[in-house]
Each structure stands twice: as structure tokens, then as C-alpha cells.
Design goal:
Elements lengths: L5 E3 L3 H11 L5 H19 L6 E7 L4 E6 L4 E7 L3 H10 L4 E2 L2 E5 L6 E6 L9 E5 L2 E2 L3 H13 L6 E9 H10 L4 E8 L1 E2 L5 E2 L5 H6 L4
Parallel strand pairs: 1-11, 4-5, 4-6, 4-8, 8-10, 9-10, 10-11
Antiparallel strand pairs: 2-3, 6-7, 12-13
Helix pairs in contact: 1-2, 2-3
Amino acid sequence: MSSSKIITSSHPLVLSKLTQLRLHDLPAKDFREGIRAIGSMLIYEASRSLPTADVPGLQSPIAPFTGTTIPLRIGLSPILRAGIGLTDAALEMFPDATVLHLGLFRDKVSLQAIEYYSKLPSQVTADLVFLLDPLIATGGTAIAALHMLTEWGLPASQIKIISILGSKTGVEHVSAEFPDVEIFIGAVDDELTEKGYISPGLGDAGDRLFSTTH
């Protein structure tokens, strides 16, 4: 990946947990825990460059001190339904964040993203939004969600994508369409099947999270 906006993790914990997630016989409970754990690590990395502000006049048990806060309104935008698997991890980092649900699904024939739900307030309520999308396969769903957020009034530069796994084609597609959006991702696989699945991938994240795999 050539873009400086695509940050692929090389952390041993991320890579080892992702190996577990790829296993076809991993129980749903362990899959959910793995998604949440990797999500936490990626959100931690994505937050590294956030601005800070001083909080003076605080008191520890020993002495007065000046603390630190993040002076931003944070939004979390999970793409339903798989994005729910990353929401708790994000809320642990930002418990006061606004949660902005976006409902999108990929048509199985055309592979195009179809919008069916949006919970965006009439006015922009966040200075920075983490778009939570566990898999970037073709990139169509992430791009549709980004259009929804930017049409809402949020600049693309104020959006960061958190994703567990992507295909090279899909990630590059998203980056080309929205070059100002940072993508923090656990790993990128080279291949995408004719049906739009990442290969070797980890299957359908939503099905595996919610035990609806047939």
C-alpha cells in the first residue's frame, strides 16, 4: 500500500489474533472477542495523533496537577450489522462518544452497497468520526458510508476508518475515492473472489459475529 493514509498494523498481537479469526471452526464467542480485541488496538493507534488540551486546577491525593483531555466531540459510526462488533471496543476508549448507526448491505448479485438506515442527526454532532467497518472487500460499502457522512457535512479529513481486514483492491478503491480519509487496518489480503469475498479472508464477519452462518 503506497498511500500514507493507509496504516496497516504490524503489531504481533494484532497478527496473532487475526490468525485465530481466520480459522473456519472458531466459535462465535471467540470470534466476537477477537474482533473486539483487534478493534481496541486499532482504535488506540488511530487515536495517537489526536490533539490534547490542558486541564488545570486538578488535585491528586498528593498535590495539585494539570491534566490532559481530548478537546474533540467524538463520533462512532458502525456500519450495520458487522460494525456492531467494533462498537463496544470503541466505546471503551470514548465512553461519551455519539454513536451514529449506518445501515448498508451489499447486493449479492451486483455487489453494490444499498442504504437502508441512517441515524445521523440533522446537524453535525462530531469533530471526528471513527467509521467502524470490520471488512473492506470491494470497498463499496465503506465508500457509500463515507458519502453519507460527508453529505451530512463532515469533512473527509475528519473521518478515520477502523477495519480488521481488507482486500488490496477494496482498500485502494476507498483510498482513491477518499484520499483524505485515514484507514487503520489489521491486514490486507491480495485476492478478492468473483463473489466479492476477501481471500483467504475470514468469511462473512456479520454471520460469524451473530451465528447466522449456514
